[in-house]
Design a protein that fits this description.
Blueprint lengths: L4 E8 L4 H16 L3 E11 L5 H12 L6 H8 L2 E5 L5 H17 L6 E5 L6 H10 L9 E5 L7 H12 L7 E3 L7 H12 L1 H6 L5 E9 L8 H26 L8 H13 L6 H7 E7 L22 E6 L11 E6 L6 E8 L16 E7 L3 E9 L7 E10 L10 H11 L8 H20 L5 E4 L6 H8 L12
Helix pairs in contact: 1-2, 1-12, 2-3, 5-6, 6-13, 9-10, 9-13, 10-13, 11-13
Bound molecules: NADPH dihydro-nicotinamide-adenine-dinucleotide phosphate (NDP) and the ligand O=C1O[C@H](COP(=O)(O)O)[C@@H](O)[C@H](O)[C@H]1O.
The ligand O=C1O[C@H](COP(=O)(O)O)[C@@H](O)[C@H](O)[C@H]1O binds next to loops.
Catalytic activity: D-glucose 6-phosphate + NADP(+) = 6-phospho-D-glucono-1,5-lactone + NADPH + H(+)
GO molecular function: glucose-6-phosphate dehydrogenase activity; NADP binding
Organism: Liquorilactobacillus uvarum DSM 19971
Length: 486
């Protein structure tokens, strides 16, 4: 089967951080693996007046690491063209249309176009409109729009944004990126759940006691402070990545492993999220900010951050998916910056056996742990017999998968997602209804917080958040499985 793709990429925000750090290296990987060969070209656009030569140099630099072949990087960069372009200026789209047409012919692309909007969402509507009105979309190939997060800052703004895009592009041409859905171990959730009868049978409120999702980062806000100050951890990480993980963990088994069936079940799971009243928000959610400590700046001392900022850099919460299989199972989530360690992990804690027949021998919990980062790993914690004449029990970890044992290099999330978009497979992109239900849940929390007089509590940089996040679980007689000490 010929896996080579033919496409013209037009990247809006071609001079930006995301394009340089993620998009060009991912395209290069696809080139090195043969998915992109002769029949592709990339137009980078942004306002600054770069030349093609300068742009190609930027691209070469961004794809070059220790092992990169200089010849391949040079050949790859030859496919890149730069067009200085202000997205608000209609005249500029006329020039863009001509360049796109010329490159389509030069590289025999056949009209396939992928428009990557790697810039502030406030421009998305105007770009979509101009792509249509200035005939940059073709009628002899596909026209797909890849859209970066954040998709709005609440439900009304997301709906407005969706409507403005929807006037020009049908839902099946819109690929809303959530890069967590391109991560290998996040994609492994479906394999573990639906590929093993053992877990398929136990994956419900009869056997699962609680679920814990941790997305912790060691870094602070770095150079994205301006954006972060308007978002906070709730909008930056919970509305998208965490709720997407929740939907993958709690959705019913899809009728088939296809885009339509998977998305249907994810939408259903997100629709079943319990939307909290302000009192329930107070009880079930904790927000916090990193404080000045251990020689590191506190959040309010960072550049571009107001010294009275109330933006949360940490969120912990307990949520419920009120579906037949998951109602009653607390799902504890936490995410934050300047925490002890960069890690993304999911712990599924199973219920205790109904009766311990081993007398004074204590039984440990069965816990299935999926570590997404730093290394992909899956463990199952089990009770087994201690070796020896006497009967004693011990807890052991069954190592179900270790990335080291599989020599295939793990593709970067963006690389996988761009290839999916080229193939027209939107399974790992978020449907509008998923976005809408996620905002509905998050808006209830945000609105309650905005009305609270208290500022976020503080936590020490390098810790796993404030003690309130531990108390949230202690209140239910639970505790976080992952502590930084391990
Ligand atoms: N960076 C990251 O790690 C991540 C980014 N994202 C999202 O990706 C998007 C891009 O982020 P990022 O690359 O960091 O942002 P940057 O600020 O680095 O880039 C913004 C880009 O937009 C261009 N631009 C701004 N105004 C205009 C205009 N009027 N006309 C044409 N071009 C314009 C800028 O170039 P110029 O000034 O030359 O016009 C620049 O290329 C955002 O939606 C962000 O939320 C999502 C996840 C991670
Ligand atoms: O979307 C975002 O994700 C990153 C964390 O992504 P990861 O792949 O490194 O886990 C986060 O730093 C950023 O604030 C947020 O916008």
């Amino acid at each position: 089967m010929d896996t080579r793709q033919q496409a013209l990429f037009i990247i809006f925000g071609g001079t930006g951080d995301l394009a340089k750090r993620k998009l060009y290296p991912s395209l290069f990987e696809l080139y090195e693996k043969g998915f992109l060969k002769e029949n592709f070209a990339v137009i980078g656009t942004a306002r600054r007046p770069w030349t093609d030569e300068y742009f190609q140099e930027v691209v070469r630099k961004s794809v070059t690491t220790d092992g990169t072949s200089k010849e391949d990087a040079d050949e790859f960069a030859q496919h890149f063209y730069y067009q200085s372009h202000n997205v608000n200026d209609t005249e500029h789209y006329v020039t863009l249309q001509k360049l796109a047409q010329r490159l389509d012919e030069k590289y025999s692309i056949g009209g396939n176009r992928l428009f990557y909007l790697a810039m502030s969402p406030r421009f998305f509507g105007t770009i979509a409109e101009h792509l249509k009105s200035q005939n940059i979309v073709t009628d002899n190939g596909y026209n797909r729009l890849i859209i970066e997060k954040p998709f709005g800052h609440d439900l009304p703004s997301a709906r407005e944004l969706n409507d403005s895009i929807g006037r020009y592009f049908a839902e099946d041409s819109v690929f809303r990126i959530d890069h967590y859905l391109g991560k290998e171990m996040i994609q492994n959730i479906a394999a573990v759940r639906f590929g093993n009868n053992l877990f398929r049978a136990l994956w419900n409120n009869r056997y699962i006691d609680n679920i814990q999702i941790t997305l912790s980062e060691a870094l602070g806000v770095e150079e994205r402070a301006g954006y972060y100050e308007t978002a906070g951890a709730l909008r930056d990480m919970v509305q998208n990545h965490i709720l997407q993980i929740v939907s993958l963990l709690t959705m019913n088994m899809p009728a088939s492993f296809t885009e339509t069936d998977i998305r249907r079940e994810k939408i259903y799971a997100l629709k079943a999220l319990q939307v909290y009243t302000p009192e329930e928000v107070q009880e079930n959610f904790v927000r916090a900010q990193y404080a000045q400590s251990q020689g590191l700046k506190g959040y309010r001392q960072e550049e571009q951050i107001a010294d009275n900022s109330r933006t949360e850099t940490f969120v912990a919460g307990k949520l419920f998916v009120n579906s037949e299989n998951f109602s009653g199972v607390p799902i504890y989530i936490r995410t934050g910056k300047r925490l002890a360690k960069k890690t993304t992990r999911i712990d599924i804690v199973f219920k205790d056996v109904p009766k311990n027949i081993f007398g004074s021998e204590k039984l440990g919990k069965n816990i299935l742990t999926i570590i997404v980062e730093p290394e992909g790993e899956i463990y199952l914690q089990m009770n087994v017999k201690k070796v020896g004449q006497n009967f004693g029990l011990q807890v052991q970890k069954l190592d179900l998968l270790q990335s080291e044992s599989d020599s295939t290099p793990i593709p970067e999330a963006y690389e996988k997602l761009i290839l999916d978009a080229l193939r027209g497979d939107a399974t790992n992109f978020t449907h509008w209804e998923e976005v809408a239900y996620s905002w509905k849940f998050v808006d209830a929390i945000r609105t309650a917080w905005d009305k609270q007089e208290d500022a976020p509590v503080e936590y020490i940089s390098g810790s796993m958040g404030p003690r309130e996040a531990d108390e949230l679980l202690a209140h239910d007689d639970h505790k976080w499985i992952f502590t930084a000490k391990k």
